[in-house]
Amino acid sequence: MSKSKGKQFSKTLVWLMLIFVVLGLGGFGVSNFGGRVEAIGSVGDTKISTDTYARALQRELRARAAATGGQTMSIAEAQSTGLVDAIRAQVISNAALDNEMARIGVSVGDDQVAREVMRIDAFKGPDGSFDREAYRYTLSQNGLTEAQFETSLRDEAARSLLQTAVVAGLNPPETYVDTLYTFIAERRSVSLIHLTAEDLDAPVPDPTGDDLTAQYEATPAAYTAPMTRKITYAWLTPEMMADRIEPDEELLHQLYQEHIDEFVQPEKRLVERLVFADMTEAQAAWDKIASGAESFDDAVAARGLSIDDIDLGDVSEVQIGGAAGQAVFALTEPGLAGPVMSDLGPAIFRVNAILAKQEIPFEEARETLAPEAVHDRAVRMIADKMSDFDDLLAAGATLEDLARETDMELGEIDYTANSDQGIAAYQDFREAANAAVEGDFPEVKELDDGGIFALRLDGETPPTLRPLDAVRDQVAEDWRAAETARELAAKAEALKARVENGEDMAALGPEVTSESALSRGGLMPQPLSDALFALGAEGDTAVVPSGDEVWLIRLDAILPPDGNDPGAEALRQSIASQASQGIAQDLYSSFAQAVITAAGLSLDQAAINAVHAQFR
């Protein structure tokens, strides 16, 4: 297990350092009235540099922005959600480990650092090997010296050694894993009565005036119009310009070459490859197949493999490569080729189908490429005009003027948080509409498809409870639904009481259905499954409402996990792995806190605030 964790830390190390490089993290040094502030604090004798803290913040904020489609989280938002505190805690923990490694005299040798440097793709040349000039250039572009980068790399590697030593060999107790597995994989059998509005003794009557008033007053949120922002906008998209643009022939040819793999495909074959340890073994298998003593499938099974293990899919001769590719493509019909040396060793190939070469000439591909070419040209034309539109607005032009004097089109929208049609389908517009302030001057902004827009907030209507007369039909419908659900629940509760008093469920009247050996989530809708597995003992019953339907369920049997389930062992291993990781994380956190306490922590709040200020 320690070896496994060591590999995991090593991979993590490489990717962390790669992220450091490709994100373009320049120096962050913080200045104050007395000069440059180098650290936000220290753990023992180890300083926590402002660069380290700022880079950690920037890395996480960029990661969050990527995860949310480019929407940047401000430092204030990050502070309010606790993200900043979590990042600072991690930086402090790393500094504590660095201090402990220095105290006990553990480090990583130059050879290990060199190996890690050479693995990073950003430092490789066109031939895929380490390029020292690329290494120097990339670091200089990101404000790092070789010494700084290699020191951080050495610290990360040494830290991973300590992490591995702390958490290596941890395994959860078998009883713990068995208990969780039994709980998760437990199965249950159930009897059900399904009740709908058709099962009521009489239809729900029309509501009275008092009924409507009570429903209206009990659920005012359902009848409250959302905040509405009246917005005027001018916009221009590539689609608006498409009908006035002729495709650029040069661009069409360029696009054809860029997508040449889609239009010109070499002959391919559906191939399976069975690899052997040496040519003698491969030849022996070939002879058996040729003599009819065994089939190719038999040879695959004899090696403990399945067809999926040897399937190469549809491949070209170049993809197979060498003599093996030549042998496979020498076949004029499906069949076997070999034994022949492949890139993995001696192999026998089976060709299951021959896919003919396909070539779509430029003239035929032109119609497919034209819309993309027109779109690209429209995007460029819009981009070229964007500064002119900005200048017009800056000179005092209104959105109406912009629509009259340019290609932009004018529109109005009563915008709410639920608007998603027309221009409101664009996230960029929604963000601007939400942030708009009445009286602000319009400015031209970009849309994600290459279009542009400018907007003006003309007024705002706060959330308003609509009059009962305006929503009377909706209130009546809601009352009928609520009354139907209430009567169905009452009927189900009456049936439940009869079952609990000893009556046979099948003799109650409504149809009874049964399901056997259900796993968690195996009974739909989901509230039924949740209720079934919440019952404590066989014979227990429950009434489960869901929308406009109600179920009466009875737990008939509690069954152990299915030992023959192919996924049983994988589930057990997953539980054990997660438990092991949880224990390791808890232990490591406790260890790090103990190290911090022993070494002593001091923080400079002014330096921390100065770092935060750079993100505002």
Automatic annotation (TrEMBL):
Q: Which domain of life is it from?
A: Bacteria
Membrane among keywords: yes
Q: Which residues form the PpiC domain?
A: 247-367
Question: Which topology term describes how it sits in the membrane?
Answer: Single-pass type II membrane protein
Q: Which organism is it from?
A: Rhodovulum visakhapatnamense
Instruction: Please state which protein family the record places this protein in.
Output: Belongs to the PpiD chaperone family.
Read off the Pfam families from this record: Rotamase_2, SurA_N_3
Segments passing through the bilayer: 12-30
Spell out the subcellular localization from the entry.
Cell inner membrane
Which SUPFAM superfamilies does this chain map to? FKBP-like, Triger factor/SurA peptide-binding domain-like
Q: What is this protein called?
A: Parvulin-like PPIase
